[in-house]
Design goal:
Elements (H helix, E strand, L loop, with lengths): L1 E5 L3 H13 L3 E5 L2 H11 L3 E5 L7 H9 L6 E5 L4 H9 L4 E4 L4 H15 L8 E3 L4 E4 L4 E4 L2 E3 L3 H12 L5 E2 H9 L7 H15 L9 E4 L3 E4 L4
Helix pairs in contact: 1-5, 2-3, 4-8, 5-6, 6-8, 7-8
GO biological process, one term: regulation of DNA-templated transcription
Protein name: Transcriptional regulatory protein c terminal
Keywords: Activator, DNA-binding, Phosphoprotein, Transcription, Transcription regulation, Two-component regulatory system
Amino acid sequence: MKILIVDDEPNILDIVEAYLAAKKYQVYRAESGAEALEKFHAFNPDLIVLDLMLPDMSGGDICAKIREESNVPIIMLTARSSEKDILSGLRIGADDYMVKPFSPKELVARVETVLRRAAPANAEEKWSFDGGQLVIHPKTKQVFARKQEVALTATEYELLTLLAKNPSRLFTREELLESVKGLDFEGLDRVIDTHIKNIRQKIEPEPKQPIYILTVRGSGYRFGGKR
């Protein structure tokens, strides 16, 4: 599988490339936003590791441009550890984030996790809710809302299908975070809120009055669609 790593620090590129290449990934490198977009279009990578701070444009701007045409998984690297900066990256479509300095081994583990989430399911199946107003195809990982295909990131898709497979079950934010990130992930509860907001914008007829992903105040979320 092809991975594009984008960072303006050559030593970070060297280290990340070495670890990913050892896992048999085909690695492409970019040191600027312009080069990142050029290589994204040229090589169609399966995943992008994207630094937030680049010399010519922000990683956020690059992520937004890529999201206009692709659902490729994106892991954001950032030296900024504030909640505001992290949530900002997730709002524009990043699947995951890591704060510098980071462990290369942990980054490889995150890459493998995100790629597994993005991989097609094996079973042929279709889940239809509310008379076909929301349809999920697990094999192709396609989602249709009111007969229009919607583009979800790998993390958004995993959250939606987890809720949809367990209708009416209440999930706490901690349970959802553990499900999509893993037991060893130390993150913010608001990471889940941000992903849920993004999903609602894409699938709900009225995102401020959701019918599919319902908030249980003070507790978490549950799925409200009817099969």
